[in-house]
Amino acid sequence: METLRKLADLPPDIFDASWSIITKERRNYIYARSFASERPTILQDLAIQEAESIDKLAELDEQASSNSDVTANLILALVNRGRDDNILATRVLFMKVFKKFGIDSRFYQLIKTNRHGLHYDWDGPRVSYYVGTALYTLMWSFDKETRKTRVILISRDLHGTNASDSLRLFLDREAHRLHSPFLLAWVSLVHITEWMDSSTYDLLTNIRRLEGLTGYGPYGGERPRTDVSIAELTDASKRIGHIQVNVANQIRHIAIGTAIPSHIASVTAEPSIYATEPYVSKCEQELANFSSTTPSLQRSLDDSNAYAYYLRERIGSQNTVVYALMGQIDARTTIDLARASKEIAEAAKRDSSAMKAIAIVARTYFAALWAVPSPGWDQPDVIQPKFWLYWAFTVPSTILIFALWFGLTTWGVPWQHKQKPQKRDVEYEELNVTSKPPMPTALDRDIDLRDKKTWTPSSALLPIRNSNGPKR
After folding, report:
1. Which three-class secondary structure state does DSSP give residue 418?
2. Last residue of a domain, one of 151, 177, 203
3. Does 314 share its domain with 219?
4. Euclidean distance between CA atoms 34 and 29, whole angstroms
5. What is the C-alpha separation between 210 and 238, in angstroms, rounded?
6. Given its phi and psi angles, is residue 79 left (phi above 0), alpha (psi -120 to 50 degrees) or beta?
7. Single residue among 300, 324, 350 that ends a domain in this structure
8. Does residue 210 sit in the same domain as residue 344?
């Protein structure tokens, strides 16, 4: 264990000291509380300046130790953590507070990697605990000889959860149970249990809204919706991803919460290792009080765990539905594009300028072919008597060509269907699983009759022996 403690360290890049010098609303504070079994609670707001903070902590510690009526005390220091997991304090200050509180340095590695879960280690008469969640990291040391509990709470109130306020509220209500190291573990267990209850209901509410949007599920209405836009489905897909992550996070934290009552139950048989006379009975009493509530909290966690798996299946079905609806919209869009392309192609065929040019050229062809001097440009009467013959041929031929073109583009060319299919057409025919198989030829029928076997009525698998030869 000593080797692990020496290897553990906190690198400077996980600290952000700039938060200590900006406006008061954003400035980091360390909140120190001294709880005494016989005395009122003392609250001290300690600024981030190193000398002042350490001096105040030392003063608070000395005040609790110098009073003979104080049988146990607790000091809590609160430090914030940013979205990028940086501790919003100077490294020098944090390390001084950490060492002064006597917390196991093995936890440096857990802090550096932002580890979640329950961890604990002994170091002589002092035991150190670590409870890591997505909202906070709670570390404390408990000295069984002096009954001093020293706590560091690293809070991550990024989403308005106010986890640190909730923890301190629970701590205020049970501040008289300081003769064992399990007060903070029990407080964390209660907080996780209530968090899971509220989180489960929030997730259920969001899933119901998704079901109302898609029209599928218990809250999907009487009939599925078909008017959902692609923008709504895209937003729904984002919400589904968010819910899936939260459900997985909930299952993980239920496992963290379950580890706490399991640990408390494991030490119930030997409470003396956490206390010395004359406070062993006090430790046993507090441990019994904590143990009496853990079964109820464990049942609540078990219920949340089952509900989380149910919500995971329910949101999974919504994920499938959203992708199916997106596929339908894509298919409709593809069909509309194909229909539009077909209409454009048909319009292009009907409006073929090439056919019009051919029809017009017919008149020029007849004029050039005959080369008749129908107009007499050097005569008094330019139009000659035989000029009507030109119009008699060109007008009917033009109309005939237009009629043939219109008929061919409207009803198609019958003889094109009788042409031998090309290789590309054969590939499409092979993919058409609904097409009928080709009719067998005479040679195929003859081969089939020669290879046909006779089967017994009682078995469709075993051929009978031929009387004229061996079994086929």
Report:
1. helix
2. 177
3. yes
4. 16
5. 11
6. beta
7. 350
8. yes
